[in-house]
Amino acid sequence: MKQYFILTLFPEMMEQTLSHSIMGRAQRDGLISIKAVNIRDYTLNKQKHVDDYPYGGGAGMLIQGQPIYDAYQSLMPQAAGARVVYLTPQGRTFTQGIAEELAREERLVFLCGHYEGIDERLIEEIVTDEISIGDFVLTGGELAAAAVIDAVSRLTPGVLGKEESFADESFSDGLLEYPQYTRPPVFMGREVPEVLLSGHHENVAKWRREQALLRTAEKRPDLLAKAALTEKDRQFLRGHGIEI
Ligand code: ADE
Fold first, then answer.
1. Ligand 1 centroid to 87 CA: how many Å?
2. Is 105 exposed, middle or buried (0-12, 13-18, 19+ CB in 10 A)?
3. Residues 108-122: pLDDT tens digits?
């Protein structure tokens, strides 16, 4: 069973967010376990404050090192040796490749910051990885941690059912996914592409590959430049005026 620990000021938010749908089922099935620890439970002052003013002045408050460190220690020995991922806009930008890398770990600790940040010495002491989910600023790391845990968990064998398979999904081969259709055959006057109704598997596969190539070229040309393309793929793209 994969074990994910979260250090946060909002444990209910994390447990709630990750309790639905596939993530909820994965936990009930014992494939992953998620334990959120409230940093505030480890403060040593009566007022339960976890934050304080930054030395040197400036706006905002920082979370102190002590309550986070003690919350982290409370996870021992279960989380001993586990990588500690701090969610921060300063981190490596999260990708499917990083999700695959983290999915190989049996245990992970996620650290969610709030306010203006966290005392740097705590980061130096326990954090092994800094991850950002994009070039924008959230009010806290919780939604970022939920996104990372979701993306990592679904790569654990058994978490996705057969019908939720990820064989052809976006990024699995460096391309975006082809368009998909379900019943009825005509919706709002728009028809399902004929080849998909033909029952001709080879033609369907060829059409899907071509659509994935065209979509990626149109929406994410940066991905196309890095994708593993065959000579046939390149020929097809050239035929559509796309040079790579
Ligand atoms: N915390 C605040 N903003 C963030 C972001 N973009 N990614 C990860 N953690 C964050």
1. 6
2. middle
3. 999 999 878 999 999
